[in-house]
Amino acid sequence: MTVHDIHFSARGTTASYARAVCTAIGLPTISSNWLRREERREADISHDDLLVFSMPVYGGFIPALCRDSAVLLLGHDTPAIIVAVYGNRHYDDALVQMRTLLEERGFTVVAGAAFVARHSIFPSVAADRPDDDDLDEARSFAKRALESIGRTGRLALPGREDHDSLVFKGSSFHPCGDDRCIRCMACAGICPTGAVDRADPRMSDTSACISCGACIDVCPVSSRGYHDEAYRAAETTFAAKCSGRRKNEIFLL
């Protein structure tokens, strides 16, 4: 059995969970981070292999780019483990959405988990997660998930079957550069949607930007970020509402 680790990780947290799960499974693994365009490619995954599908949650759903890229996957009643990584508010319908997308592509979801990580837009929320306890939980989940392979039935998950992921139009906040920008173009190179203006990398196309934060993390001079007062006020409000430590949740057949 080969494990196909497919995830989208802009700021490293989803990748941390995906790595913990796949390492605990302990089988040969092929990894793809859909943040990078060249790693979004067709994958025909046999019945005897395993898909680990790990995605961040934006507004209650996985990123639209990842939703639309699910057509690249083809399973053959292939077992799949799904992992939703969210920023301490809630994962809403993301797990149900992931299960539906994979079922439509020929996979059987045998286990799912919702894990908490540092918020991608408001990083003061759940700033230290995943921590060691979180990653231990992810490894334990992986071992239990393996035991679900071959069981019959449909994995029960919280969330609405009649969800409409198109209702989420994206964040109202988008990172941009400031006067510290040295035009190194690292941000343009990492942006998964091509939203950074190559003529002026301080600017972003807000209609294309998904606010994943990858450009912020790669900027060598801390130029890119959220620079307006409205953002700072929103972060204070959000942090006040979502400061408590939420527990991770797992679901098994």
Provide a descriptive summary of the structure in words:
The structure is a single chain. The chain is an alpha/beta fold and 253 residues long. It folds into 2 domains: 3-164 and 244-252, 3-Layer(aba) Sandwich (Rossmann fold), CATH 3.40.50.360; 186-241, no CATH class. It is 27% helix and 18% strand. It has 7 helices and 8 strands. The chain has helices at 13-25, 64-69, 94-104, 132-146, 186-190, 214-218, 229-241, and strands spanning 3-7, 29-33, 43-45, 50-56, 73-75, 78-86, 107-116, 249-252. The strands form 2 sheets. Strands 2-1-4-6-7-8 form a 6-stranded mixed sheet, sandwiched between helices. Strands 3-5 form a two-stranded parallel ribbon. The longest helix is centred in the middle third of the chain and has 15 residues, at 132-146. It is globular, with a radius of gyration of 18 Å. The mean pLDDT is 96.
Summarize the structure.
With 253 residues, the chain is α/β, with parallel strands linked by helices.
Helicity level, as a percent range? 25-40%
Averaged pLDDT, please? 96
The total of helices stands at 7
Widest sheet: strand ordering: 2-1-4-6-7-8
Structural class: alpha/beta
Topology at a glance:
Layout: E1 3-7, H1 13-25, E2 29-33, E3 43-45, E4 50-56, H2 64-69, E5 73-75, E6 78-86, H3 94-104, E7 107-116, H4 132-146, H5 186-190, H6 214-218, H7 229-241, E8 249-252
Parallel strand pairs: 1-2, 1-4, 3-5, 4-6, 6-7
Antiparallel strand pairs: 7-8
Helix pairs in contact: 1-4
